[in-house]
Amino acid sequence: MIYSQLSSDLWAVRLEDGDDILVSLRRFVEVKGVRAGLLEGIGSLRKVRLGYYDFETRKYSWQVFEEDMEILNLSGNVSTKDAGYIPHVHVALGRKDFSVLGGHLDDGSQANMVEVFVRRLPGKLVKAHDQKIGLNVLQLSDRI
Amino acid sequence: MIYSQLSSDLWAVRLEDGDDILVSLRRFVEVKGVRAGLLEGIGSLRKVRLGYYDFETRKYSWQVFEEDMEILNLSGNVSTKDAGYIPHVHVALGRKDFSVLGGHLDDGSQANMVEVFVRRLPGKLVKAHDQKIGLNVLQLSDRI
Amino acid sequence: MIYSQLSSDLWAVRLEDGDDILVSLRRFVEVKGVRAGLLEGIGSLRKVRLGYYDFETRKYSWQVFEEDMEILNLSGNVSTKDAGYIPHVHVALGRKDFSVLGGHLDDGSQANMVEVFVRRLPGKLVKAHDQKIGLNVLQLSDRI
């Protein structure tokens, strides 16, 4: 993983051959202390572990795909929960026949080459486990 | 719909169980007076009403899907037309088998849980109806 | 191609009927001198030339699709290589049946109507050819 800092709150990151995408992003925001952030990127991966969350059973199902796929879009945000940093990332992936797969990105996904922009946001984003939903969700202060 | 303001021009919004996604976003930008903006988000929905616009017939076709789907990417912008606020939003959605659907997001789409970032842009974005295209389009001042 | 400048570093651009999407974006960043940037957009196109890069053979395969498709997401960045500007753009596209195609966007893709936001970033983004990968990749200064 290589990077350049473009401003006090913005980094360009390039994930390299075999880098674990989510593990790398988690490590990056930990090292830089990005406690609230946005992630966006494009590129290519060779292996992906995708999740799909079923809100009725409140369980993820997972599937691994091992093939070169274009990352049409990597979108997500960064928050914290207790002492940990949580990059929450979804991907849409283009296959060789130009059909598309996608889901929630998990550890175990390996880059070919990914260009990601990490933007630190002002303020804090904190997650906590929601027992009804079964997921960690953003704790936000106001309601409309 | 809950939210926190992160800066004068940025909000983190979480749509909750059953919230109408587009109606909520329209209401949010109305309440906050966001007359020009960008929207980006990820999450999950349980029902979606997708549109596809045919530029020959100049008509939308619509289809409703009722199943939990990951929102791989919610992308859009905010402008105004006459007295109204127009959030224009497209979504790419991941199904249980990790295949992907997508289109123009309409009212009638219900969140499971969606994390959206609303960014107010400087200046104004105004739309007007274009009779040739059959859509409301951005009125912009310069041409290359 | 019409546009409005929203701030010193941000433009709203609308591609019109038949505009070549990538050629237009390349021309825009050249005219404005955007040597580092981010691109995001939604809209519709009528023709697309999509690429898929195979990291084993180190070759792109290309396919042209000629049909109206919703641009669910146009994501990319801008860098330079030697004297040239490089907009690197991926798209996810929604078909009439709401299934999705996607890949690396090439010259030869024609807009119906595309709303793109071009953001100039501070600093520089420079690419150079990587012989091992076979692609132009971002040259970044630091490593974790």
General description of the model:
The structure is a homotrimer of 144-residue chains. Chain A is mostly beta strands. Chain A has one helix at residues 21-32, and strands at 2-7, 10-15, 37-54, 59-81, 84-94, 100-105, 110-120, 126-130, 135-139, 142-143. In chain A, strands 1, 2, 3, 4, 5, 6 and 7 form a seven-stranded antiparallel beta sheet that branches. In chain A, strands 8-9 form a two-stranded antiparallel sheet. Chain A is globular, with a radius of gyration of 15 Å. The mean pLDDT of chain A is 98. Chains in contact: A-B, A-C, B-C. The A-B interface holds A 36, 38, 40, 50-56, 61, 63, 65, 72-73, 75-77, 88-92, 99-104, 121-123, 125, 133, 135, 137-138, 140-144 and B 1-7, 10, 12-14, 17, 27-28, 31, 40-42, 44, 46, 68, 70-73, 92, 94-96, 98-100, 112-113, 115, 117.
